[in-house]
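This part of the workshop introduces the protein records we will be handling. A record pairs a protein's sequence with a compact description of its fold. Backbone structure tokens are a discrete shorthand for how the chain folds in space. The question running through the whole workshop is how a given chain folds. The record below serves as our worked example for the rest of this section.
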Amino acid sequence: MKTTDSNLKVAILGVRGYPYVYSGYETLVKELGERLQKRGVKVTVYCHRSLFSNRPSEVNGIKLVYMPAIEQKSLSQLTHSFFSMVHACLSDVDVILVVNSANGPFGLISRLFRKPTAINVDGLEWLRPKWKGMGAKYFLWSSKMSTKWYDHIINDADAMQKIYKDMFGCESTVIAYGANPSFHSDPEKIKKWGLDKQDYFLIVGRMVPDNNADLLVKGFVASNSKRKLVVVGDVPYKDAYASQLKQIQDSRLVFTGYVTDPEELKALFHNCYAYYHGHEFGGTNPSMLKALGYGCAILALNTVFNQEMLQNGKYGWFFEKNIASVKAITEKAEMEEAAMEQLRSSSREGLTQKYNWDFVTDQYLEVFRTLKAKKAKN
């Protein structure tokens, strides 16, 4: 049952802004923020000023604050979050929700101002290949600081909760991301790439080592599949890793680059023969949720997080982190068309209550109410 919270004021920071859907975090802000607003919560979202040429003060009932940043690659996100945190602490909001464990140290600011805070820490950022040296050390330290300075830690998967408990001795609440299941799309949308229904495998995600794009492409190329491999995504900068992948010569490979039209992306999911998921270091992954909600047969890297999302193989098959394993599962999928059809027909059943956006909102609301009540008692 949805209740109203007309006296609750919540600020959200650590994202690029709203309405701006680029990653899982921005999707969380959109889905959660809009639902909170409809329940009477006064929601403020902090936006990265340089990303918005038009800067309305309010969209869909959500108040927007545009904060500056030091526009350098390694400082942009952190400085934006720092300025946003200071501004939020000086405002009249009751609770601050921060996303991204990189913002861990800024919990000290809210602690000094006695503003109740929760942080969604996301995945194992310190293990991602893109963060090397000082970057990895910073993420490990900042994740630890998140557990020291914030009032409430939110993990997005049971497996991630266990890792934070084992590594940092911290108690946390598990709140997954939600999904928006869809049964229909326009099959004509995939014709622009010369594709037909179920004549291709699909990869969706940034073309980075974290997602094992090279493993997936090379494993597919080594297979005897007669189908195509469609790779959706890219990187927004010159990158040797992505360039080398796009230079692989195989007539079955189709690199679409970014697909910004949500209807085109939906059609690509709906009509694929199977979807490869190579993400390794996160918890609940938004791309996997899309694949489940869009009725895909899923072939996923064998990690504790992917096992959790696919309920230990009930809603997908698993491969190991090597080219031979990707090759083998591709050829197995080609041979077992009935099994692939069964996965497609049952995948949406994998979206249990924990992946329902209204239930996700209920859980966040409970955290916010508890934090506000705790502050009132002190």
User: Anything to note?
Assistant: The domain at 187-352 is CATH 3.40.50.2000 (Rossmann fold).
